[in-house]
Amino acid sequence: MIPTQTAPLTWREKFSYGVADMGFNFYWTNIATFLLIFYTDVFGISAAAAASMMFSVKIINAFTDPMIGAAADRTTTRFGKFRPYLLWVPIPLGCAAILTYTTPDLSYDGKLVWAYGTYLLMMVCYTCINIPYNALSGVLSADPQERSTVNGLRFIFAFAGGTLVTAATPAMVGWFGHGNDKLGWQLTMLVWSIFASLLFVLTFFNTRERIAPPLSQKSNVMQDIRDLSQNRPWVVLFFLALIIMITITLRTTSAAYYFKYVVGRPELMQGFVPAYMISAAIGASLTPLMTRFVDKKKLMIILMSITAVLSSAFFFVPSDQVTLMFALQIGMGLALGPKSPLAFSMYADTADYNEWRTGRRATAMTFAAATFSQKLGTAIAVAVIGWLFTVLGYVANSAQNSGSQAGIVWLMSFIPAVFAVLAVAIMFFYNLDNRKLVQIQADLQARKIQ
């Protein structure tokens, strides 16, 4: 009989797990694409203040990730360790998101306090459900190829959710607000929150946790952190996630400014980011096929090299060459699409490696610390944008000077390209290949039989 941990997952379970990431992108894509421009152009605070606030909150929130991961690893219910969070947290998260996109009638300083408080609350709630969800992918199956398939499907839904958000959100804000963007944003987030909550509950009811820590395992949070710090492949992925999130966030967040102030056609955002999302979904769908023939490490190096070349090429595109802009964007989507399922599959592999090496397993902590690096990368990218805008003289809802326009173009091209090159360099230190993973799984299975 095929061991339960490595038995093929049903397509119902794969679908049910993957679809939740569409719900997460109802939040994440709104945050990454629209939150900064919401704060500067609707909420009414400066780019520097918004960037500093978002940076500070992301840093604080990043340090809550290991705590939430440790709590999830130590959660014990009849539903498992990670699934219950998909039932407990959706409503608090939805309420926090609506408050974040609410513009109160307060003084400038009062608005800053409101922004700090609501954004931090939303990010903590997001973490409380996202980290257990990420960890769930590591306990659905012990088969590395099944993990690649599950994460590939997951990110198809993620990119589909991102496409829907970037295409529909501006129209929803206009439709709900009837000229009042403050009301429009508030009601738009209410709708996204409801749909996201329904998807999270669907995942809860249709998935199953199959992998548990060794029965004899005794560890504390500090032991988990020490294990990770000595887990070389995980350390590599930590810095990889940090750098890739900087690369992606720089371009995604700058795109709204690029089309509004450089191209002069802000309506193109409704097609530009969705073009990336659709092509990324196609790339993600091809991940399981590619990993059958190309080692994960080599594949990641190839993909990030292509990203660096295409991002650099964007610098040379004239502001009236919309077709070329979209072509490069689609190319980057195809290159970056497999990155996410690859990375999350590799995180699960490092959890197995940790158990194989130490006899201890901390799946949620593995993913939480990875999420820490992603949030830190996002925070750094947003801070770079806000501070660069301030230095170059950005003025919201006004024609930009030549320095500000040039800065926006660099943020769409050479600056993210440099970080993509760094990602390539870091991957050379990753030391888990397919042969090693086969050995690890065989040894872990043998231990469980003994």
Write up what this structure looks like:
- Belongs to the sodium:galactoside symporter (TC 2.A.2) family.
- The chain has 18 helices and no strands.
- The protein is mostly helical.
- Helix 6 (144-177) packs antiparallel against helix 11.
- It is globular, with a radius of gyration of 21 Å.
- The mean pLDDT is 89.
Mean pLDDT: 89
The number of distinct helices, counting runs of at least 4 residues, comes to: 18
How far is it from the N-terminal to the C-terminal residue, by CA? Answer: 17 Å
Strand content of the residues, in percent?
A: under 5%
What's the shape?
Answer: globular
What is the CA-atom radius of gyration, in angstroms? 21 Å
The helix content, as a percent range, equals over 70%
The main β sheet shows up as: none
The residue ranges in which pLDDT falls below 50 over 5 or more consecutive positions are: none
Q: Structural class from helices and strands?
A: mainly alpha
Total strand count, please?
0
The string of secondary-structure elements, in order, is HHHHHHHHHHHHHHHHHH
Keywords: Membrane, Transmembrane, Transmembrane helix
InterPro entries: MFS_2 (IPR039672), MFS_trans_sf (IPR036259), Na/Gal_symport (IPR001927)
Pfam families: MFS_2
Protein name: MFS transporter
Give short descriptive properties of this protein.
450 residues, mainly alpha, 78% helix
